[in-house]
Amino acid sequence: MPRLFGKKNKSSENLTDSSSQNSDHAGDPPRPDGSGKEANGGSKVTRSSSDQNLPPAPPARPKLVFHCQQAHGSPTGIISGFTNVKELYQKIADCYDIPVSEILFCTLNTHKIDMSRLLGGQIGLEDFIFAHVKGQPKEVDVTKSEDALGLTITDNGAGYAFIKRIKEGSLIDRTPLIAVGDHIEKINGESLVGCRHFEVAKKLKEIPKGSTFTIRTVEPLKSGFSNIGPAAGKKGGGSIGSGKQTLRLRSKGPATVEMPDDVVDVATDKLNGLLESFMGINDTELAQTIWELGIKANNPHEFAESLDNSDLQVFGFTDDFVFDMWGAISDAKSGRLAKAAEFSEQF
Description:
Belongs to the GIPC family. The chain has 347 residues and is an alpha+beta fold.
């Protein structure tokens, strides 16, 4: 059971204090009476010509604050001041005085291992964060009797790949112990810590049919009440937008507050379908990565170059498949995919 708070009480740094929040100038030196108060008879403050030419200072950005708990149970912590997923995990680890390596992934607004509520590249401004930490390790021998294992793999953006979905009736679905939410730590003794989800998927795909391999996973720590409520089974779900403002986390550059874009969901669904037909892998995160490369390209040639210069070049996408993906991206950019989705939802 991980320690919630150590001897160093770091949580006190994360408690809100209304008095400090409302006194932005509490530490300023006292000013003489009437300074800067011309309307009340004070002296007028004059500026030099150089000061008058300076642009006005931009207004201070509001400090975004999020509440969090450990999914298996803990006091509530206050998290702020992060711009990407790695920084968020570090903030949570500091709050609870645990190693950041203990955090597997986070869900939003539920302590359950609900893959439809995974924290990804954006967080709703009113979302409550639940951190799932490492629990019991498991090691299983699997004979690859079929071409596809039936796994959908994602990663937490901070070095851990884990199982997002298991196809019903698949080989892994019939394998005991392996479950949605498990971190894939090793395959045949080779550590996969630090690998992206598509790298893990590629290693599993390259295992020869008919061979037996050993997979070591680590399940998230569960509370005594984790099984209360509707059973989710082994299959994961798809993400559902909230329609509210979100904090979009970026690997480079500052986080920004944006409205969610339904076009992105439609485009990644289309790309995911193409990936499944091409590779036998259902991978929403890989589709999202392809979409982010595609929206920066102006034509299929630039898109193909972006793929070749990225980590995705290891997949060796054919020219025809690249054009198919570009077609889905350009349709989404123009709004044609969104219109098609609207039409299908009416029937």
